[in-house]
Amino acid sequence: MIGQFDETDKKILRRLGENARVPFSTLANELGISNTMVHQRVNKLRQSGVIKNATYVFEPKVLGYTTEAMTRIQVTNAKYVNSLIAALKEIPEIVECSNITGKYALIIKIFAKDNSHLRDVLYSRIHPLAGVEGTDTTISFETAFQKNIAIE
Q1: What backbone torsions phi and psi does residue 70 show, to the nearest 5 degrees?
Q2: Whole-angstrom Cα distance, residue 12 to residue 28?
Q3: Whole-structure pTM value
Q4: Which helix (H) or strand (E) holds 47?
Q5: pLDDT tens, residue order, the chain (152 aa)
Q6: What crossing angle do the helices spanning 7-18 and 24-31 adopt, rounded to 10°?
Q7: What is the C-alpha to C-alpha distance for residues 7 and 33, in angstroms, rounded to an integer?
Q8: Which DSSP state fits 121?
Q9: Which of 34, 50, 120, 151 could pair with 13 as two cysteines, CB 3.0-4.6 Å apart?
Q10: Can you list the domains of the chain with their CATH numbers?
């Protein structure tokens, strides 16, 4: 997909990856192109699906969510995967879910206020779901880094 884009598109993507709120006028000045051209390029990148969204990223610890965990979910039967994904999406503490290969069908990222809260999420809201055979949870000390895919 990236082969369809020229160097100006790539520069715009790199800069927006650093700061999605950079004013288009600043981008235009940095790249030596017009504001209109920046708007057109960004719209093209949105329409093509390269840019999903521009959003604020919250800091969970500042909001009182001091426990971060990755939980792998083993399912009794593959037929439950889609309904589990839908149910997990409704649990506010779960911020990410991926369908994976191997013994476990799903891996989720959970933010909880503390270990007791995490236990409640696991035992009261995840384990009772139809199709959940078991879970394996790893508590994260910190997110060492998080970044977008490289634009080369």
Answers
A1: -110, 125
A2: 9
A3: 0.84
A4: helix 35-47
A5: 455 889 999 999 999 988 999 999 999 999 999 999 999 999 999 999 999 988 888 899 999 999 999 999 999 999 999 999 999 999 999 999 999 999 999 999 999 999 999 999 999 999 999 999 999 999 999 889 988 888 88
A6: 130
A7: 13
A8: I
A9: 151
A10: 2-47 (1.10.10.10), 67-140 (3.30.70.920)
